[in-house]
Design brief:
about 90 residues; alpha/beta; about 25% helix
Length: about 90
């Protein structure tokens, strides 16, 4: 017998409207959320440089989730509301 597991998340999937995209990143605060694995470090360091030097971003906030395989913590999600743009990534 084969058991198939369903990995979907069942908690009330409410619909939402996507926010408007910023017209520019000049002077903006951009967030980067890492899963904490070592492979994200060089990628996000390079992305940080590009954002600052090529796109005129004023601040890049780096955060790391406490558990690489779980969703980001509520505090982290709440903090990200202040960012113009957010990048999330994983790496090994």
């Amino acid at each position: 017998m084969i058991t198939v597991l369903d990995p979907t998340f069942d908690e009330d999937p409410t619909t939402f409207e996507l926010p408007a995209r910023p017209s520019t990143l000049v002077g903006a605060t951009v967030g980067i959320i890492s899963n904490g694995k070592q492979g994200t470090r060089p990628f996000f360091a390079h992305l940080d440089r590009l954002l600052r030097h090529e796109w005129g971003v004023a601040e890049v906030v780096h955060r790391t989730k406490s558990n690489y395989s779980a969703p980001a913590e509520a505090e982290l999600i709440n903090e990200s509301a202040d960012w113009a743009v957010m990048f999330a990534g994983l790496g090994d």
